């Protein structure tokens, strides 16, 4: 009874770990990108007109 639940949790943990590893591998392929730039590129806010790099 209890072991079946543990086995399900173990499988879920393994799947989560594999997903994390895949995400890490993808992130390593994007060398040179900065998180803030990627975030800014995906935001719909207009650029600031005061010259700072932060979105409005």
From TrEMBL:
Region (Disordered): 1-56
Entry superkingdom: Bacteria
Basic and acidic residues: bias regions: 1-28, 36-56
Name under which the protein is recorded: Uncharacterized protein
């Amino acid at each position: 009874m209890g072991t079946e639940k543990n086995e399900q949790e173990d499988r879920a943990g393994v799947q989560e770990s594999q997903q994390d590893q895949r995400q890490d591998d993808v992130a390593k392929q994007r060398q040179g990108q900065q998180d803030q730039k990627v975030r800014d590129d995906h935001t719909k806010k207009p650029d600031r007109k005061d010259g700072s790099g932060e979105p409005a």
